[in-house]
Amino acid sequence: MEHVQGRAVKVTGCLFEPPGTASFDKESLLLHRDQETVVLLNRFPYTNAHLLVAPLRHIASITDLSAKEGASLMSMLSTATAIVKQELKPDGFNVGCNLGETAGAGIADHLHFHIVPRWNGDHNFMTVLSEVRAIPEHLLATFDRLLPLFQQLSCRKEEGK
Ligand SMILES: [Zn+2]
Fold this sequence. Notes:
five-stranded antiparallel sheet, disordered N terminus, binds zinc ion
């Protein structure tokens, strides 16, 4: 609807580098940003709560990750999966990345992992979802559901410093 009304956010620059330094931003669908990783809700999801986890640094491949970045990325993949599991109780997940346009990467120049929660019988669900995937309210409702859990994560990290 927002797209129709022309109020959609114009994404300039790299999708995985939302402007500013805030730990979250609803307009960018940014759920979490820390020193090394970002977590975004995919604006064009395959299923509900389809997340994208990326390193903060603009690099194209897993072979470009430093050891520290790799460890942070894997840790965030685990944490984000746990959050979706807790909140939406899927029956399984597809977690992975596409390296290069040939392999299906929509944005090939900034490495990102997909976390796609799966439910038993979600082929039907996905058919239904494909009908409604452009409705931003659906995305924003999911964003509002997941954000508090990611914010707890930020708080825990700050307390741990
Ligand atoms: Zn980038």
